[in-house]
Every structure is written in C-alpha cells, then in structure tokens.
Amino acid sequence: MNFNELGLKQEILTAIAGMGFEKPSEIQAEVIPYLLNETGDVVGLAQTGTGKTAAFGLPILQTIDPKAKTTQALILSPTRELCVQIAGEVSKYAKNLPMHIVAVYGGEDIRKQLKELDNTPQILVATPGRLIDLMERKKVHLESISYLVLDEADEMLNMGFLDDINTILERTPDSRRTLLFSATMPNEIAKIAMNYMKNAVEISVGKKNEAAKNVEHYYVLTKQSTRYDVLKRLLDYYPDIYGIVFCRTRQETKDVAEKLMVDGYNADALHGDLSQAQRDSVMNKFRLRALQILVATDVAARGLDVNDLTHVIHYNLPDDRETYTHRSGRTGRVNKSGISIALVTPREKGAIKPIERVINHPFTQMDIPSGGMVCQKQLYYMVEKMQNLEPDKKLERYMPDVVELLKNMDRDDIIRRFIALQFNQLLEYYHNSVDLNASVQQEIKSSKQGRVSKGRGSRGSDDHDEPKKSRRQMRVVDKGDTLRLKINRGRKDGFEPKRLLGLINDVTGDKSIKIGDIDISPKFTFFDVDKKRVKQLIQAFSSNHRAKGYIIGEVKGNR
Ligand code: ADP
Ligand code: MG
Fold first, then answer.
1. Over 80: is that where the pLDDT of 455 sits?
2. Left, alpha or beta for 152 (phi > 0: left; psi -120 to 50: alpha)?
C-alpha cells in the first residue's frame, strides 16, 4: 500500500513525502483507512516507534476544518516530552495547512501557554493535569472536539492520571471519536474503552521492536560504590563474552575502559573524544573480535554495525527507554538468545518498569555471581578451550622429555597442577572476595531503617573487592609501639601489599587495624602492626575460616 492510495490531501502527501515517508507503517495502514472510511472508535495496540502519531495525526488533519477557529482535536499524552514530540511531529505533517497546533503541559510557566491559547488552536496536545488546570481557568474549550486521542494510555494510567482522564472524557461531546493507543492492554484500559468508547475496533500490530528479538533481560542490584566491581564480576563470569558495556557519559566511558584495561581485560573505549582514525581502529578491532569488550557511549556506538553480541551490559541505564531498546537490540542472534544486563542501584530500580512496558517483556533479577561461581565457570571454560585446542606441531619435539619428567605423577595430580598454574591467582582473588549481593542487601536494609545517609557517592567506599592501598598502608611512626609479624605468603605466591590488606580486612572484619612497612620476600611477607592489635589479629587468623591455610606469627628477634 502507498500513502497516495489512502485518499489523503495533496498538502499532507507532500509534507510526509518531504519527511521521507515512503510507505505507511503497519499500524498506519490499518488505522488510517479505518478512520477515513468508517465511524467507530479505535483501540490501537502497538509498541513505541511503530508510527502511531501519523496513524491518528493524518486522518485528523484530513478531516478537521482549518478555517474554523475552534479546538477540534485533543491529544492527551503522559509527559511533557511526549507532548512536545507529538506537537512537533503533527506540525510537520501540517506544514502545508493553515493549522494552529499548541502543546500544554505541566512543569512550565502557565502564562506562556495561556498566551499561546489566545489564538484558539485547532489541535491541542496536553498532559491531563495541565489540561484540567486550563479547563478550570476557562482557557480551553472542549465543546467542539471531534477527536480525542489517548496516546500511551497505559503510561498515563501508570502515572496516576485515571481520574483526570475520566474528568476530561466527561467534558467532551458524546459525538467525538475516541482513539486510544497503548503498548499494553491492562484492565483499566479495557474499562475506559467500555465506558467511553463506541463501536471500538481493536487494531493491534506485531512488535516492530528490536527488543522483540531473542533477548533475555536481566538486572542486577548493586551499590553505587561497587558498580565497577559488579561489572568485573560479570565479565569474569562470562569469559567468552563479546559485548558492549554502555555508559552514560564520555568521562564514565573513559574511566571504566581504562580501569578494565589496567585490570587485564581485553577492552577498549569508544567515545566522542577520539579522533575519527582512533574510532575506526577501535571499531575494526571490535568487528574482527580482536577486542572482546567495547565500552561505549550511545552516540559513539551508533556508527557501529555489530548486532550479534553475546551480551549488552548497561553500566548505567539510559535516560530514555528508546535507547534501552537500541542497546539491547544489539544482542540476540538468530538461534541463540542474547543477554542484556542492567546494573542498577536500589534507588534506580524504578527505571526498570517503564522499560518493561516499552519492550513488552519482563526483566529478571539476576544475582551477582559469587566468587565460587566465577571460578567454576572459568575452569569449565578453560577445559573446553583445552579440548578444542590444536596443539602446535612444534611442541612434539619436547614431548618425550616432558613425559619423562612427569612419569611419576599420576594423571589427576598433573591436571591439578596445570590448573593451579593457570588459576591460583584467580582462586586467591575470589577466595577473599566479598559477597556483593549481601552488601547491596545490607544497604537496602539499612536504608529502610533510615540509617544510610543521603548522597553516598562512589568515592571512599569501604566495600571494594580490593581495598585501596592508601586507606591503610600507613607509615608507622613510632616503631616502639609496633610489632613485626610475618605471614606464610610471598612473591612466589603472587602476594602483594593490597592482598595482605584485603586479607586482613576480610579475616578481622576490622578496618581500623593499621599495617605498615610491608616487605615481601619470596616466601613470606613481613609487616608492622600496632602492638595493641596483635592479639586480635592473630586470634582472627586462627579462628576465621577465611584465613584457612594462612599462618601468621611474630618475627622473633631484630629485623
Ligand atoms: P510511535 O508513536 O508509535 O512511537 P512515532 O509516531 O513517534 O511512533 O514515529 C516514530 C518515527 O518514525 C518518527 O520519527 C516518524 O517521523 C517516523 N515515521 C512514522 N511513520 C513513518 C513512515 N510511514 N515512514 C517512515 N518514517 C515514519
Ligand atoms: Mg508516540
């Protein structure tokens, strides 16, 4: 079907052709002929981005009288942004017609809107609350309304506009045509349709949403202060990830990418501050899968034609729901489902519901993988990789010698040791890892009890996987007050000052114990502790299961 088969005025056809509209969308192809040729009301069910504005806008422009200075069409919409958008869109269709279109909405000085209303608009776009206000001031007149449109009706109900909508419906003439558009059909909408609509037909079109692809939508709850740790945990949990981590700003993109690179991930950043050549290079690496993880802003990722990602991670959710759809639409392949994971703080959780409505799909809460789960996943991944590996032929010449060297070790032991070679560091790291789920639950609990102070930022948190060196690695000033201790881990075990500090944090659960003068030898690490705290430390190490395998003791004699 073509637009010029619909019997629309030339002025309208020229305008939409100028906007690049070639063919009516599905909902337009159904709704426009019905509105032009029949008399009943319409309940239209369609997702965002399916072209609903023109579906009701074009028939309205076709049939109302531009010469009559009365308000003939009223379009109700839930938010200021949508009002502005609809009025802008309809104005473009009406470019060649003498039509006055006004948008009124809350949150803006009413005087400006009152002034605009002095010249009576033929089409009025409004949020329900502001419209009632203006009705009470007798600034809008609804007695000549022939079209009443409830756009994004489900959203309006969710925002608590039901009473206002009922009030407005009652003040408009019975002769009006009512058009209701919604992404979903909750009971309240069916009720409105029953009470206020005549001979309504239901027209619903299939999802045109990208999110309708094969995507599983998850969110994880995190504290603001552990957002980055949660990201790392997720990346560790998906060793074969090929995905984008979406950030909200350039700065955040740079920060996250930089930290990931420092932490040894195969990641890079894509954002607007890069030169075109740099951007091309990053995109090429990513396309070729030489890069596993791309950290990007929405704008920068637009130029990237990669849509078969295994994962999309929302380091922060976008402000608008359309962007979520675009982001998550980049995952989900033909036969495999893609995974979209949003990191949200308890306070940001409210952003999930509106997105669910747009994608017409529920989110599932995902627990943050525990250290143990990550280790298991990585191990299986390595085993699988090992099984699929084609060993280099050049290895053959060394084989007899190596086999000879290992001849007294049994198979299990050899496997264990080779795995240990690869995994000791990871196991060690996760052995002492905090339960990130528990820490966010703790925060929810204490904020319910009103104990969490407002505006807790990301800085200065005590809950990182890896404690910041600067927090505690003090220089002990008075040597007389300290005792020198040692622990049975050293450079050969990959032990580092921050490991020691993390370990002490975890085992004692006490961050006030000051440690100084850390000295790492191949097999041992030496450090100073406040004399008064030594007993506490040694006791914690002998009783806490987290300290299993660690032996801590006093260094006898002088250093
Ligand atoms: P919805 O209200 O269903 O979310 P919109 O009416 O806002 O969708 O339309 C989404 C976008 O698609 C707008 O930018 C609009 O200009 C464009 N659009 C609408 N209909 C067509 C069409 N038939 N051809 C091309 N673009 C269209
Ligand atoms: Mg719309």
1. no
2. left
Ligand 1, atom 12: closest residue by C-alpha: 51
Between helices 10-18 and 80-93, what is the axis angle to 10°?
A: 120
Which atom belonging to ligand 1 lies closest to the Cα atom of 25? 23
Residues 358 and 226: beta-carbon distance below 8 Å: no
H or E segment at 219?
strand 215-221
Whose CA is closest to atom 22 on ligand 1?
A: 21
Cβ atoms of residues 313 and 243 within 8 Å: yes
Mean pLDDT of the 364-371 span: 92
pTM beyond 0.85:
no
Q: Enter the DSSP assignment of 330.
A: T
Q: Are 48 and 209 in contact (CB under 8 A)?
A: yes
Q: Which helix (H) or strand (E) holds 75?
A: strand 73-76
> Is 50 a pocket residue for ligand 1 (Cβ < 6 Å)?
yes
**Ligand 1 proximity of 25 Cβ (cutoff 6 Å):** yes
Range list of H helices, 332-489: 352-359, 371-387, 399-405, 411-431, 436-448, 469-472
The pLDDT score that the predictor gives to residue 63 is: 96
Of ligand 1's listed atoms, the one at least distance from the Cα of 92 is: 16
- Please work out whether the CB of residue 24 comes within 6 Å of at least one atom of ligand 1: yes
